[in-house]
Amino acid sequence: MHDAETYHKFTLLSCAGAKEVLIYVKDKLTWNENENILDIGCGTGDITVNVITEYVPSDSKIIGADISDEMIKFAENLHSHPRITFKRMDILDDNLWTSWNKGQFSKIMNFYLMQRIKDSRKAYSNMYNLIQPGDEVLMMFPIKQDLDKIGPYLARMSKYSKYAEELSKITVHFTPREDHVSYNCDLLESLGFDLILCKEKVVSCEVPSVNFIIELYGLITTLSQILPQDLFQEALEDSKRIVIDNKILEQTENGMVYNYTILIIIAKKRC
Ligand SMILES: C[S@@+](CC[C@H](N)C(=O)[O-])C[C@H]1O[C@@H](n2cnc3c(N)ncnc32)[C@H](O)[C@@H]1O
To answer: Which segments constitute the Methyltransferase domain (predicted)?
Structure first.
């Protein structure tokens, strides 16, 4: 997912989720003067600039970093902030230390990153080395999504039979598991973090239309890689019907709402 311009259309959802989390955790984090904050997997930088700055001390410096050069260029062109810079970083890099220093940051944040990371151990281990003892990592990522119902429905349709096996396995989280809470908590503790918070939370976000959520689904899953272009477009149309028939969006007085479950973690590097 390196299409920064398309992703940017959906950041109102991620910004709303990040804001809800930061309001919830702000007082659970320890704040000092001159914080050096890394927002890893910053994407288009909207959360970095428009949300994080509202909830951290005003003298903090923030680096928004992402594996995608396209995202970093887009963020640089879109935003200008005296205390924020954008740089490329792959949090799975085995050799981060040619460009970055151990203990360089006092806080690491990431929003909607870890569901896309296949090697959580490597990512957490790099995060551990990027901060000092006593410093904290805050992360949030979706762990349960009703959108995951779409793939198995498509897989049962005869026109997609050739791709049924892959379609049946499509999930928004790249490494789906039943035990996200214990898996992540155990892993972080084994790497030398103390857990300040590890909590599931249901997030509700208003969405303007079914088309909107389906376009997002097409962008954040592997559907477009599994199907040829013509079938991909047809599958998006079918996905709309699946969303409506299965009431994946809730109709409220204010419009349509999508509910999903996130995991929020605050992990502190042991002293
Ligand atoms: C779903 S987007 C979230 C963007 C932003 N945090 C937001 O919530 O709007 C995930 C981002 O993580 C980035 N990403 C994926 N793997 C990464 C890695 N190994 N290191 C750094 N960034 C990565 C992607 O390029 C993408 O911009």
So the answer is: 33-143
pLDDT in tens, 249-258: 999 888 899 9
105 lines ligand 1 (CB under 6 A): no
Q: Is the CB of 160 under 6 A from ligand 1?
A: no
pLDDT digits (tens, 9 = 90+) for 74-118: 999 999 999 999 999 999 999 999 999 999 999 999 999 999 999
Q: Is 86 in the pocket of ligand 1 (CB under 6 A)?
A: no
Strand 131-145 to 255-269 pairing = antiparallel
Q: Per-domain residue ranges for the chain?
A: 4-145+174-206+260-269
Q: Is the pTM of this model over 0.85?
A: yes
Is pLDDT at 2 greater than 90 in this prediction? no
Mutation probe of ligand 1 site: the residue of 7, 51, 67, 70 with most atoms within 8 A of C-beta: 67
Tokens standing for residue 146: 């009703």
Ligand 1 contact, 115 CB (< 6 A): no
Tell whether domain 4-145+174-206+260-269 is in CATH 3.40.1210.10: no
Q: Are 43 and 67 in contact, with CB atoms under 8 Å apart?
A: no
CA of 24 to the centre of ligand 1 (A): 22
Taking residues 232-243, report their average pLDDT.
97
SS3 40: strand
Average pLDDT, the chain: 96
Q: What would the two tokens of residue 175 be?
A: 């490494």
> Assign residue 84 a region: left if phi > 0, alpha if psi is -120 to 50, beta otherwise?
beta
Q: Kindly state if the Cβ of 91 falls inside 6 Å of ligand 1.
A: yes
